[in-house]
């Protein structure tokens, strides 16, 4: 049998024969896109508007590279301007970088446009009832260079409470971080895997990331009696019946069911 490789065809991860060249197709699309936009693109980088903004950002960042702390030499769009043109003058999307860090970042962005050649990042959404063993599941399946977003552990570390109480003021901060994280993930291939641990599915995540990444949906099914017992043992104060009702009513279409103990 001929060996295969995983690559992107028309934006979808596909298994193709090992020697098939898919890269040129991606290149063509990318170059066409560039050509059409180049004119506006160059005009922007020569505009007074941009020069002023650039100076403002360097001063805001004290002329320090926001990645390594050395002297900054340029101002970078966190989400590349060609990916999100509307955000090109948004200070929140701009950062000062040194040339070396910019090179590393540009290489990552290049990889994003040539996914078939290198690797792509898997996004894994792991849902399940509280106490169903989500954190353990992720720990068992993660690799060495992964990002794990776990609402519960963020709540613990930000609130200083370790009995899994929910502080509603902190909840807002955790969600804010979640939104920012999704925004950043949208344009990067930094990790082998991203794990998003949550109780219920959230269509927003799929909408935001579907064009960019391969998303795996996993739902852990654990006997509710076992979950509740675990929560009691861990002294986690959760309105379990309410969560269970929401869980039973949620739409898990497209999710892979993993039976857990
Ligand atoms: Zn740097």
Please tell me about this protein's structure.
This protein is of the alpha/beta class and 261 residues long. Helices cover 43% and strands 19% of the residues. It is built from nine helices and nine strands. A five-stranded parallel beta sheet has the order 6-7-5-8-9. It has a two-stranded antiparallel ribbon with strand order 1-2. A two-stranded antiparallel sheet has the order 3-4. The longest helix has 23 residues, at 23-45. It starts with a strand and ends with a strand. It binds zinc ion (ZN).
SSE topology:
Layout: E1 4-9, E2 12-17, H1 23-45, H2 48-60, E3 74-77, E4 94-97, H3 99-113, E5 122-128, H4 134-141, E6 146-150, H5 151-159, H6 168-185, E7 193-198, H7 203-209, E8 214-221, H8 224-233, H9 240-249, E9 256-259
Parallel strand pairs: 5-7, 5-8, 6-7, 8-9
Antiparallel strand pairs: 1-2, 3-4
The structure holds zinc ion.
Zinc ion binds near residues 67, 97, 98, 100 and 101.
């Amino acid at each position: 049998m001929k060996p295969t490789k995983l690559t992107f065809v028309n934006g979808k991860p596909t298994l193709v024969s090992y020697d098939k060249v898919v890269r040129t197709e991606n290149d063509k699309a990318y170059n066409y896109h560039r050509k059409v936009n180049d004119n506006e693109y160059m005009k922007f980088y020569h505009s007074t508007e941009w020069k002023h903004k650039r100076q403002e950002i360097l001063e805001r960042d004290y002329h320090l590279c926001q990645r390594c702390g050395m002297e900054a030499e340029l101002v970078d769009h966190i989400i590349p301007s060609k990916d999100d043109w509307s955000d090109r003058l948004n200070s929140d999307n701009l950062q000062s970088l040194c040339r070396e860090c910019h090179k590393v970042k540009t290489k990552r962005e290049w990889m994003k446009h040539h996914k078939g050649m290198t690797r792509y990042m898997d996004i894994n959404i792991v849902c399940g009832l509280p106490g169903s063993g989500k954190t353990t599941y992720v720990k068992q399946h993660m690799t060495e260079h992964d990002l794990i977003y776990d609402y519960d552990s963020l709540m613990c570390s930000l609130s200083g409470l370790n009995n899994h109480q929910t502080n509603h003021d902190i909840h807002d901060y955790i969600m804010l971080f979640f939104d920012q994280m999704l925004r950043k993930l949208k344009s990067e291939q930094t990790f082998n895997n991203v794990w998003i641990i949550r109780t219920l599915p959230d269509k927003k995540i799929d909408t935001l990331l579907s064009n960019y990444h391969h998303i795996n949906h996993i739902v852990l099914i654990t006997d509710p009696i076992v979950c509740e017992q675990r929560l009691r043992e861990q002294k986690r104060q959760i309105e379990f019946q309410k969560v269970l009702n929401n869980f039973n009513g949620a739409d898990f279409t497209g999710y892979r069911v993993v039976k857990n103990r």
